[in-house]
Task: structure prediction
Amino acid sequence: MVEMRQLQLEGLVELRPKRWNDERGFFSEVWREEWLVNAGVSARFVQDNHSYSNKRGVLRGLHFQTPPAAQDKLVRVARGSIFDVAVDIRGGSATYGQWAGLVISAEDWNQLLIPRGFAHGFVALEDDTDVLYKVTAPYSPEFERTIRFDDPALGIDWPLRAGETVLSPKDSAAPLLAEVETGF
Result:
């Protein structure tokens, strides 16, 4: 059983799987193919990824892969919380360059489905945050692209103050969206 809610950009869907709690802890089905099929999504996941951020402020993204290695993603948090962001990079889309953000947390037990054609990034809101996500295409370095997380044209309202973010060298050197050929 799952609750699903369409976010403001077409294709972005929040999922809230049911959790059964008792004195031992809880049980939950965190993903079932039929949930997406019933919602009209035909995603075939082929790889699971696990990202651990040891400190609040670790920011990863904005990442995507171009066709033919483009990925749909289903993101969830097993421990801690993140502010998750998806940016529409589909050329010709009425919402091109717009973003949507959602807090995903182990406490809320929610997930975000991000279709191909969106750049994706997140920032850890707590120390020791574990993020798990399924993808529909394997990691392909030759098709990977990165967009600057603080691109002024995007205007993403990250929930951290200046100087609080911890970035990889790749993400620090990322180009602006206007400088990237997205392939969509």
About this structure: Residues 33-38 form the longest helix (6 residues).
